[in-house]
Amino acid sequence: MSSRTETDPAFEGLLRFLRENRGFDFTGYKRPSLTRRVRKRMAEVGVEEFEAYQDYLQVHPNEFAELFNTILINVTSFFRDAEAWDYLADEIVPRILKAKTPNSTIRMWSAGCASGEEAYSLVMMMAEAMGMEACRRHLKIYATDVDEEDLERARRGSYKAEALEPIPLEIREKYFERSNSNGRYVFRRDLRRTLVFGRHDLMHDAPISRLDLLLCRNTLIYFNREAQDRIVARFHFALKDDGYIFLGRAETMLVHEQLFEPVAMEHRVFCKADRSKPEERMEALVQAGMEIGSDQSEADPGLQGAALEAMPLAQIVVDRRERLALANEQARSRLGLDLRDLHRPFRDMELSYRPLELRSLIEEVRERKESIVVRDVERTLAEEDGEEYWDIVVTPLYGSGDGWLGTAITFWDVTERRDRKVELEQAHHELETTYEELQSTNEELETSNEELQSTVEELQTTNEELQSSNEEMETMNEELQSANAELQEMNEELRSRTSDLDRAYAFQESILASVDVGIVAVDREFKITLWNDRAEDLWGLRSGEVQDLSLFDLDIGLPVEELEGPIRRFLAGEAGEKQEIVLEATNRRGRAISCTVSQTIRSGSDGQAEGIILLMDEE
Asked: What stretches of 290-357 show up as alpha helix (H) in DSSP?
């Protein structure tokens, strides 16, 4: 084998090749040990020269993983790279804790946790910073890997004595208990509950979200550049805006500077780049997800589809026939969509009108030929989850011939941003209240001083006593004026809310009046709860005449007795989610008509059927 020196240009060229091809920088490693490990792997594959080994890597891409395993002999250990962990404990953890309220949950993720040493190191570090009780109540750490055997070892939390050597003795005695059966050391059971171990594929599984800290140390080196871009984009989505990512010594984020910026490059700690607008973040994530060449017409459709699927924002596409054409992974998981929904008419889907009326926006962007952004759209979740808020971007899609292809709708989760805004407003309100209380205290002190002075002056002259009484009356007058102003503000607020309710009711009535289809809603006892203007026009009965009457007691031109059986079966769940019946009827003018009656389940907030909505249309 060649006897070139540690500063051999060919060896430096090999390191540059690893950095440029895989994005990992080993130049910070000590040359003697680094060269020795590389040569060891070269000998195993039968290659002598560095240039030849570089060619071998290009022909055998799986060799990258074997080389990295050889370079990183200790795949995992407790507090690996102790200086970086010290920086994390001294600088980053205090920032995370300072940003939290007393009852907030701290969420962390150890991606590629192997046999668990890194995850347990994280628990020990946080327990030292937070205290045992706070750690048990408010810390949640997700530790994932693709190797089930490693995960099973990690769940046991049992290690040999030599594996604990990197841990200081006082910390080791505090968090590990010696097992009498096999002489191994087991991590404390009460703190193990803060850890959630599970299998997770970084390439194909959705990332864990709303993270304060993400550890992925020397895991990305096993992926090619395209896969790294996709994973890093998912990491960007997983972190909170003030979250941090902690990488291994050989990993950098220089190729993803549009997504992350360094906090401490020497320790490989990064934070999200400052991109405050949703459009800017979306652009950066798309750029991180795929490489766009200079000739857009030659772009690989499969690559574009993969980029859409990997985008950490929910996005759907409605084609020009107003059918759901595309829905990426985030849209399916966050919006309750299914692959079976593809090619369905968009207007028939709940998403088209809840939480926002999207059908009219699609028409509007088609006419205006420009995007529309609707901010802070509230979406109600399950009772225990509360609400979330979205910024929704509706964008028209045009082909090369300026022909309209459809509409892209992107959903940006801004719940955290809005929560912070509410917290900020609450803090401002509390500050104003405190300031007012301080002013009141100062006024009370001044009043007390005046009263004392008045008492002294009473001994001198009765006139000064009357003057003091006059000042007190002026103070009372100011207080009454202040109370009157507060009452006026409350009156204005009540008047505004009443006006809002009136407008909402008028808006609902106008919608029902504008629909050219008879709409009748009945409850589970078949009593009529809604009867719109078109139904009055068809059958000659006003809404007030039929309210709370049984549908089957009506004497109208529609043979309602023929609806009883289908309605009962429909409520019993024996007829699918929607059905139509065509009946021969006589309208209020005595003319024979064919009436199409469509039935739809009316569900309550708990998802249970509360009744039936009948749509009656004259053919």
From this structure: 301-310, 329-335
